[in-house]
Amino acid sequence: MSEHVDSVRTYASVWLILLALTAATTAVAYVDLGAFSVVVALTIAVIKMLLVALFFMHVRHSTQLTRLVVVGGLLWLGILLTFTLADVWTRGLIGTPGR
Amino acid sequence: MANHAEAQAETLALREQFDTAEQQKDASTLGMWVFLITEIMFFGGLFLAYTVYRDIYFPVFALASSSLNAVIGAINTAVLLCSSFTMVLAVRASQVGQRNALIIFLILTLILGVAFLGVKAYEWNEKFQEHHVPGPTFHLEGTGQQGEAQLFFSLYFAMTGLHALHMLVGCGILTWLLIQSWKGKFTPEYMTPVDIAGLYWHFVDIIWIFLFPLLYLIDRHLGR
Amino acid sequence: MRLPLFPEQASNFAPETDHLLYFLLAVAVFFTVLIFGAIFYFAIRYRRRSDRELPRVLHTGLALEIVWSVIPFGLTMIMFGWGADLFFRESRPPANALQIYVVGKQWMWKLQHMEGQREINELHVPAGRPVRLTMTSEDVIHSFFVPAFRTKEDVVPGRYSTTWWTPTKPGKYHLFCAEYCGTNHSRMIGWIYVMEPQEYQTWLSGGRAFGSLAENGEKLFQDLACGNCHKADGSGRCPNLVGLFGRNVQLADGRTIKADEGYIRESILQPNAKIVAGYQPLMPTFQGLVTEEGVLQLVEYIKSLGRQPGTTPAEVSPNPPAPKNQ
Amino acid sequence: MITAAAQERETYLNASYGIKSWLLTKDHKRIALLYLFTVTLFFFIGGAFATLIRIELLTPQGGLVSSETYNKLFTMHGVTMIFFFLIPSIPATLGNFFLPMMIGARDLAFPRINLLSWYLLVIGGLFALFAMLAGGVDTGWTFYTPYSTTYSNTWVIATAIGIFVAGFSSILTGLNFVVTVHRMRAPGMTWFRMPLFVWAHYATALIQILGTPVLAVTLLLVFCERVFHIGIFDPALGGDPVLFQHLFWFYSHPAVYIMVLPAMGVVNELVSTFSRKPIFGYSFVAFSSLAIAVLGFLVWGHHLFVSTQSVYAGMVFSFLSYFVAIPSAIKVFNWTATLYKGSISFATPMLYAFGFIGLFTVGGLTGLFVASLGLDVHVTDTYFVVAHFHYIMVGGAIMGYLGGLHYWWPKITGRMYPELWARLSALVIFLGFNLTFFPQFILGYLGMPRRYHTYPDEFQVLHVLSTAGASVLAVGYLMPMVYFIWSLRYGQVAGANPWGATGLEWQTASPPPVHNFDEMPVVTHEAYDYTTVLGEVEVG
Fold it and tell me: Best of D147, D232, D430, D526 to disrupt the C interface by mutation (most C CBs within 10 Å)?
C-alpha cells in the first residue's frame, strides 16, 4: 500500500531549500524593487507551495484525480480574485463617479 | 508478532460500506483533498479582502506591515517548515513501519507546532501593548489614516487568528495520532490517518507560506 | 380600481427600456409557447396505451443539439448587446446636464439644487433637459429608483454614485428607495415633479433659497478656515484649488489621478489618502465635522472655482486616466 | 407502518427500534429520513412567514403588523427557506437516500460524517430558531453591509452563526457525495452509465464544496465586524460595502444552482421513467449539469449592476450570464425531445415533472431579462426579481422535490400514496403557484420595490391576486403532507418496482434492506435501458 517511499535525503533537501527560500524572501524584501517586490515575494511563495505540495504532500506520486482537485481549488480561488478585482480595478474608468 | 497481527486484524477491519482496503484508503485520501479545497476557498475570502484593500490603501498597508517584526515572522516560518519536515518523516516512518520513529517525529512535530503558536501569542500580546489591535484604542504612528491602518490589522488578526485556529486543531489531531501510534494501531498496511493528517498539516503550512510575505514584508526597503 | 400593466414612459430611457422588454418578451413568449405546446402535444399524442408497450429508442442527433444550442445563444447575444449599449449610455451623463445633489439617509431623500433650493422627498426638474444626480448616503445603502424613468442606482455610503435621465413628460412620478435600508424602507419614498421649463424657472425663483450651492460651499469653506492653507494665489502650504476640478493631479506616490467629485470628497474626509506631489500631509480630517450635504456644498464650491471664464467646463475634460473611485 | 409482507424480511426501517437507533444511525437511508423530517419542519416554518407576508400585503397601508415585524418576516422567510429548506432539501433527503443506491453502493463513503452533517444542520437550525424566537432578525437574507453590521438592532449574530454551522453541513454533504461517486460505484457502473440524477448531484456537490466556504468566511467577517467593529465593510473606516456583495454573491448565486440542479436531476428520472425512454441526448444533459456548476461561478456580479460596480465588470458579468442559459436550454429541449414518441404516463410524479419544465422555462427565460444590463436597471430589486427567483426556486426546485418524493415514496416507505389526491394536489399547486407569482412580474415592471411593507394604492389589485394564489398554494402544499402520513398506514403495499423504472434502486425490495442490496449489483447496461425491466413488450 505504501507505494512510494521517498528517501529521507529527498525530504531533507526539500526542507533545506524551503528554509533557504524563506531567508531569501525576507532578505529581498529589504531591497527596493518597486512594484516587482510583490511579484518576487509571491513567486517565492508559489515555489515553496509547489515544493511542499509535490514532495511533502506526495502530489508528484498522486493520481490524476488528486492533481485535478488541487488545480481546481486554485483555479476557483483565481476566479474569486480575478472577477472581483475586475470590478475594483475598473471602477470610475468610464469617467463617471460610482460607475 | 502475535500482537502485531492482532492490531492489524483490528485496524484492517473494513468499514462495512467499502469492499477493499484500497478503496477505503483512496476514499479517505480523496476526502481530505476535497476538504482542503474548501479550506482554500475559506481562506480565499480573506485573501480577496486583503488584496482589494492592499491595492486601494497601499501606502498605509506598507506602513502598517513595517510595524510587524519581520525577523520573528521569518523565524516562525522556519519553525513551521521544520514541523512539516518532521511530519513528512513521521508519515515515512509509518510507511515503512518504524513505530518508534513515528512516535518521535510526531512528538517533534507537535513541539514545533506549539512553539509556533507560542511565538504567535507573543506577537499578539505585543500588538495589544502597542495599541495595534483594532478597536477604540487603536493607534498607528505615522499616518492620519487610522481607519485604513486598522483595516490592515483587522485582516492581520483575522488571517493569523484563523491560521492559528487551524494549527490548534492540527495539534489536537497530532495528539490523537500519538496516542494511536503508541497503541501500535498503525502499520504499513494501515496508515491512512497519519497520511491524511500529514496532508492537513502541510496545507496549514502552505497558508502560512503566503501569509508571511503578504503581511510582514510589504515595502520593507523603506526601512521604517 | 386601476389595473395598469405598464408604468408611464416619462424619460428618454423609458421607451428604450420598453423596446428591449418587448424584444425579450417576444422571445420568451415564443419559447414558452413552443415548450408548453410540445409537452401538451407529445403527452397526449404519445400517451401510454398499454402497460407493456416499449417505445423505440431514438439516438441523439448531434446536429439537433447544436441547433438548439446555437440559436438561443445567438438570441441571447442580441439581448446582451442591446442591454449593454443602453446601460453604457445610462452610465455617461452628458456635459450639459443639470446637476442635482442627493443625500440618502434613514429614511428620507435630501436633494439640493445648484441654485441652493433644498427639497426633502421631492424633486422638481424641468422637462426636456438632462438631469444628472450625484448621490451619497449618510448611513446604509439606499437606491434611487424612478420607475417612470426606468432608472435606478444604489446610493452607497462612503462614495459618490451617479445617475442621469432626461424627463420627457411633465407630471408627478414615484420616487422609491429600492435597496432595503431598515425599518421604514417602504416609507423612504417621494415624488419627482417634472415641469415645463418656464414653470420650473418660476418654481426656482419662488423658492426659499439661501444662496446657491456654491455660495453655501464658499461660506462653509470660510467657516472651516480652509482658505488659511488653500490660498487662491497658490502661496499657501496646501495645493491651490482654483481650476482643480477635472484636472489630472500628480500624487506623491507617483500616481496620477483625475480630480473628480469622489477625489475631492475623499480629500476632505481622508486627507492623507492621496497626497499631492510636493506637499506635506498636514491637513486634518474633517470626518464628523462636515455633513455629507456640507461636503457636497464644498465640492460644488471647488468645482465652481474651476469655472472661471475662458476655461473649459470641468465635466467635458477628456482622456480620463484610471482614477479609483474610493 | 410495517406491512404483513414486509414483516417477513428485514428492512432498514425494522432492523432496529428505538430513538437511539435513529439518532445514532449511520445508515444513509435513515439519515435521509431524519433530514426529511427536519427540512419539512423548516418548510412549514418558512411557509408560515410567507403566509403572514402575503396577508399583510393585502392592504397598501400595512395594518396587520408593524414595519419592524414585516421586515423580520421576510428576512426569516428567506433565511429559513433558503438555508434550512431549499439547500438541504433534495440533496440531503432524496440524494442521501438514492445516490448510493443508484450507483450500487452499500452506503456513502463517510457515513459518520453524513450523520454529523445532519447534526450540524439541526444545530444551525436551532441557532436560527433561537434568533427568531428571541426577537427575530431584519436584515434581509442577503445581510447587506453596513446595515447588517452597524445599523440593525436585531439578532444578526445568532442567525449568522446558524447559517455558518448549516453551511458546514452542506459542505460535508457535498464532500461525501463527490467521494462516493468517485470511489463507491458498483462494478460496471461507469460514469456514463450513471443515472442523470447522480450527475446532477455530483455537479451540485462541487458547488457546495467550492462556494459554501466563501459564504462561511463572509459571515465570519460580518460577525467580527458586528462584535469587534473592525471595519472590514465599514465605509467610515475605509471599508468597502460592495466587497461584501461580491463575497456574498460568489456563494449565493451558485447557491441557486445548489437548489435547482438536484431538482433537474429528479426530473431526468421522472421524464425517463414515465415516458419509458432513455433521456434524449444523455451526455449533453450530463455535461450541461457540470457546465451549469462551472459557469454558475462566473456570473455573480449580475446581482451588482446598480451597486456602483464598474460598468466594465457589469458588462463581463452580463455577457457570461448568458452562457448559463445554454446548458439550461439544452436540458429543457432534451426533456421535451424525450417525450417524442414515448409511452407517456400521467402518474403524479410526471405531472410534477411537466410542472417543473414549464415553470422552470418561465423562470429561466425571465432570467434573460434580469441578465440584460439595460433592463435589469429597471427591474432589479423589484417584484420582477422576486417573481423570477420564485419561479426557479418554488416552481423549479420545490416541484422537483415533490415530484421526487412521490416517485420514490413507495421505495422509501413500501406504500403507495393515493393517486387521485396526489394528482389533484399537483394541479392545485401548479395553479396556485402561477396565480401567486405571475402577477408579481407585472408588479415588478410597474416599479413595486421588493421588501416594501407599505405600497402605493395602484399596486393593490395585483397584490390581492397574489395573496389569493398564495392561499391556493398553501392548500396545495398541505395536501401531500396529509395523504403521505395517511399512506404510511393505509396506503397500498408497493412492489419493488411499481413504475417499471430502470435505476438500481428499483432492483431491490421496497423498503430496501439495511445494506441496500441482498446481492451486490453488477451493471451491464446503459442507464435507462427499459428492455431490462419489461419482459415481454410490444415495441412501438
Answer: D147
DSSP for D218-283? HHHHHHHHHHH---TT-GGGT--HHHHHHHHHHHHHHHHHHHHHHHHHHHHHHHHHHHTSPPTTHH
Among residues of chain C, what percentage have pLDDT more than 90? 52
In a domain, C262, yes or no: yes
Asked whether the beta carbons of D183 and C213 are under 8 A apart, the reply is no
The DSSP 8-state label assigned to residue A29 in this structure reads T
- Judge whether C120 lies within some domain: yes
Tell if the CB–CB gap between B205 and A52 is shorter than 8 Å.
yes
**SS3 assignment, position C164:** strand
- Give the three-state DSSP class for C280: coil
Q: Where are the beta strands (DSSP E) in C129-200?
A: 131-137, 142-146, 151-155, 161-165, 171-177, 190-195
pLDDT tens-digit map of D444-502 = 999 999 999 999 999 999 999 999 999 999 999 999 999 999 999 999 999 999 999 99
Residues C146 and C185 placed together within one structural domain of the fold: yes
Cell numbers given for C88: 453604457
Q: What's the CATH number where D196 sits? A: 1.20.210.10
**Residue C64: domain span:** 1-37+60-210
- Rounded Cα distance, D400 and C74, in Å: 29
Containing structural domain, residue D155: 27-532
Residues of B in contact with D175 (CB under 8 A): 31, 34-35, 38
> Residue D478: beta bridge partners?
none
Please state, in angstroms and as integers, the Cα–Cα distance from residue D539 to each residue in D262, D277, D530, D534, following that order: 32, 12, 11, 11
Query: In this structure, what are the phi and psi dihedrals at residue A98, rounded to the nearest 5 degrees?
Result: 80, 10
CB contact under 8 A, C82 and D372: yes
8 Å CB contact of B145 and C326:
no
Per residue in C182-216, pLDDT (tens digit) is 999 999 999 999 999 999 998 888 766 677 888 88
Of the candidate CATH numbers 3.40.50.300, 1.20.120.80, 3.90.180.10, 1.10.287.130, the domain formed by B26-222 belongs to 1.20.120.80
Question: What's the CA gap between B99 and B27, in Å, rounded?
Answer: 25
- Which of D122, D23, D137 lies closest to D75, judged by CA? D137
Backbone CA torsion sign across D475, D385, D351, D47: negative
Q: How many domains does chain C have?
A: 2
Judged by a CB distance cut-off of 8 A, whether residue A92 touches chain C is: yes
Amino acid making up residue D273: T
Residue of A nearest to B88 (CA): A56
